[in-house]
Design brief:
Length: 137
């Protein structure tokens, strides 16, 4: 649900699409119970969910407001070592299986026809195709 290549994810489903508080609570309780069951399995190692901002965290805004204030690198330059760090932290990632524990958060508003989200996911896809990012978030 988190790696579909658009803004439709588990958070949106639970907190925006489901309007009945009782149903939302039942779903969250189910997820919590099942996560405990999975973590209690012998030999299970809990993974890390890597959550990152985009502007001035993944790549430089070039100091252009409102995206950010970092003028040390030109606009759009991916910070050195950032993508490697994401891959190292994403311990459960497997190259031959659809998996990712990488999620990007942004304060960018949801605008007409998901323009901002599409732009971000196109950027992520480009990084994956270039072999720089290990998985689509």
């Amino acid at each position: 649900l988190d790696g579909t290549g658009n803004y439709h994810n588990l958070y949106k489903l639970v907190y925006h699409d489901i309007s009945y508080e009782v149903v939302r609570s039942e779903i969250l309780t189910h997820i919590q119970k099942q996560s405990k069951v999975v973590r209690q399995r012998p030999g299970h190692i809990a993974g890390i969910k890597v959550c990152s901002d985009i502007d001035d965290t993944l790549y430089s805004s070039g100091g252009h407001f409102p995206a950010g204030c970092d003028k040390r690198f030109p606009k759009g330059v991916v910070y050195p070592g950032c993508l490697t760090l994401f891959k190292v932290l994403d311990k459960s990632w497997q190259p031959n299986a659809p998996s990712s524990n990488l999620a990007f958060l942004s304060a960018r508003p949801h605008v007409y026809k998901s323009w901002a989200e599409k732009k971000s996911y196109d950027f992520f896809l480009g990084l994956v195709e270039e072999g720089r990012l290990h998985s689509i978030p």
